[in-house]
Amino acid sequence: NGCMQTFDYTRYACAISQEQVQRNADGSWKLIVAKKNPGHNNWLDTAGRNKGFIYFRWLEAERIPPAINCEVIKLED
Questions:
Q1: Most CB contacts within 10 A, which of 19, 21, 51, 60?
Q2: Model pTM?
Q3: Per-residue CA distances from 53 to 34, 50, 57, 62, 69 (Å)
């Protein structure tokens, strides 16, 4: 949201840490942001919102992280 307030993380899956994220065999990972859980382990809930911001942060990174690629796709109904 515009005020940078977090969603209610006690009711919504709105954050994920490096310890929680499920990685692919090559170490990469994918996050799915959707209103309904599509059955993906790395799902983040929109908490009923239609728009917002996503923030990625690396604390005390030993090197510059690779670029993040994002795309909007339609999930099957």
A1: 21
A2: 0.73
A3: 13, 11, 13, 26, 15
